[in-house]
Amino acid sequence: MLGLFGRFLAMDAIDKKILAELQRDGRQSITELAERVQLSLSPCHRRVRALEASGVIEGYHAVINAKKAGLGFEALLFVTISRSDSSTFATVEQQLADIPEVVQAQRLFGEPDYLVKVVTRSLEDYQRLFDERLTGIPGVERLRSTLVMRNVVSDRPLPV
Fold this sequence. Notes:
Blueprint: E1 3-5, E2 8-10, H1 13-24, H2 30-37, H3 41-53, E3 73-81, H4 86-97, E4 102-107, E5 114-120, H5 123-132, E6 140-147
Antiparallel strand pairs: 1-2, 3-5, 3-6, 4-5
């Protein structure tokens, strides 16, 4: 049975197989999953629900090809803020979260303060976003962009 120890879920080999299978194909039925991890239906279902309830499984989603969806331009943005205080961090983080083209933002130790992944249709759209929204974020001291030439590893399943 699954148990909580602090904030972490104690997982056994079967739970890890379940996670690996769901990362591989999140749309498979519980029946298919149970067969793949060699469990009967009810115990498999209980384990999946426990993994969901504990927050180990946060949700299910489709993986979309950005280029085929018309979003062929990708940039990484390095953000340095002007002051390291909680108010500035909160403002910058909320502003970044409010921009739909920001698909990932990570706060870092050291400099820069943030690494932000931005996806747009074109360089022109990115320039407009940069000039009109990103440069206007209160508390930002410096923005540096680099263009993504090619994604080598992306959306890799976690090594559970």
